[in-house]
From TrEMBL, chain A:
Species annotation: Silvibacterium bohemicum
Protein name, per record: RNA polymerase sigma-70 factor (ECF subfamily)
Entry keyword Transcription: yes
Family (UniProt): Belongs to the sigma-70 factor family. ECF subfamily.
CDD domains: Sigma70_r4
Length: 177, 255
């Protein structure tokens, strides 16, 4: 494909995703300047690598993956919490997957502050997968591409993120009683 | 494989509320849900958590200027050449064109120099651009592309209006040096004529003695804003050029 058409196509594909990329970069880096740098670098990398992008495959997953890798090599990630994104033990906990207990149904989810706090306390890896699922509304197979993990791991990680939220909310409710 | 009597696992509930179960599994689960109150509650509870989570996570919107910089970055990367300096001599291609333009340039220069040496330089630049087949460094009619391209390249900033007068189109821009100082060159098409707009910082520009001159069919129009000198050089219709100048000047006023 001629370079000029390629770059026009790239622009068409990437332009609508800029706000999403920025928001996700902000969630990962927790800093406005770092988020901007990460997105700028993502655009540059994606432009250079666009020849290797297979048309017909998922552009959104492809560019979010570049964004994530850019974050992991950014000074923001190295300075703070890069390792927590690379850990794999998070998937090894709670291999057994018990059915929900009846208490779960009693949770009150109208406490916005409690939920926000629980999300803040969530392991970064679990928060990341939940963000991709709930805010960016990526499909499991897209998340698998972004995080470079099997789709089964995506499913268990999201489930684990939600169970952790439940557990934290239950504790908060418990401590209030 | 999901048996009728088996309760749903957490992963199944989670995938179900995300719409991620393959249809065969989803069918089996729904059959179970129809007869199991406990699992039905789990699904409802998971749906509530999902929507509460969506509300609790907020999306961070990029500030407008950040979005503008992203858009600028989206354009194909052009090689970062050092700023080109246009001179009539170096850019005129073809001996005949060179002779004609040089004669014209010298003729006009002699007239202009009496009032302003800078005007002669600007006219040279405009003529050089007309005779050159190298396009401006940034080629775009989109102000969101052209303006950010200058970011960091100039010691001053300027604004571009949302829309230009009808018949006037932005073609692109370039960084040039005037009298040793960086200046923004904006290239427009005004009707069927090309117009060069030069933006320079006021402290460097000297005081122009005239607001408009017409010399050998070329109009040189000046305008002062708080921080900038703006000069248009073109052989286009002077009243069209005046409209372009006032549109540009209006955008520079502090808000
Ligand atoms: Zn059941």
């Amino acid at each position: 494909m001629p370079a000029r058409n390629g770059s026009v196509l790239f622009e068409q594909l990437a332009l609508p995703l800029l706000p999403s990329l920025y928001s996700h970069a902000f969630w990962l880096s927790r800093n406005q300047e770092d988020a901007e740098d990460i997105v700028q670098e993502t655009i540059s990398k994606a432009l250079r690598a666009f020849d290797s992008f297979q048309s017909g495959t998922n552009f959104r997953a492809w560019i979010f993956r570049i964004l994530r890798n850019t974050f992991l090599t950014s000074r923001a990630a190295i300075a703070t919490s890069r390792t927590v994104f690379m850990e794999d033990h998070v998937d090894l906990f709670d291999v057994s997957d018990p059915s929900p207990t009846p208490e779960d149904h009693l949770l009150r989810l109208d406490n916005h502050a409690a939920l926000t706090e629980a999300l803040e306390r969530l392991h970064p890896q679990l928060r990341e997968v939940l963000l991709l699922c709930e805010i960016e509304e990526l499909k499991y197979k897209e998340i698998a591409v972004v995080l470079d993990i099997p789709i089964g791991t995506v499913m268990s990680r999201i489930s684990r993120a939600r169970r952790t939220l439940y557990a934290q909310l239950s504790q908060q409710v418990g401590s209030l009683l | 494989m999901i048996q009728d009597h088996q309760h749903l696992s957490y992963e199944e509930v989670s995938a179900l509320v995300d719409g991620e179960l393959i249809p065969r599994d989803a069918h089996d689960l729904e059959q179970h849900l129809a007869s199991c109150h406990s699992c039905a509650l789990s699904v409802i509870s998971a749906m509530q958590l999902k929507s509460a989570t969506k509300r609790a996570f907020k999306r961070f919107a990029p500030p407008p200027e950040v979005l503008t910089r992203f858009r600028a970055r989206l354009l194909p990367e052009t090689p970062k050449n050092p700023a080109r300096v246009y001179t009539a001599r170096s850019l005129i291609r073809g001996a005949l064109a060179a002779c004609l333009l040089l004669a014209l340039s010298l003729l006009i220069r002699r007239e202009v120099r009496q009032s302003s040496g800078l005007a002669a330089e600007l006219l040279d630049q405009h003529l050089a651009l007309l005779s050159s087949d190298s396009p401006p460094e940034v080629i775009s009619s989109d102000r969101h592309t052209v303006k950010p391209w200058f970011d960091g390249k100039l010691p001053f900033s300027f604004n571009l209006p949302d829309a230009f007068p009808s018949g006037t189109t932005l073609k692109g821009g370039d960084l040039i040096f005037l009298d040793g100082h960086p200046a923004a060159l904006l290239v427009f098409t005004v009707g069927r004529h090309q117009a060069s707009v030069f933006l320079t910082q006021r402290s460097f520009a000297g005081t122009p003695s005239v607001a408009r001159r017409t010399l050998s069919g070329f109009t040189i129009q000046y305008a002062k804003t708080q921080d900038l000198y703006l000069t248009v050089v073109s052989d286009g219709n002077p009243s069209d050029l005046a409209l372009l100048v006032s549109a540009l000047v209006a955008e520079q006023s502090p808000r």
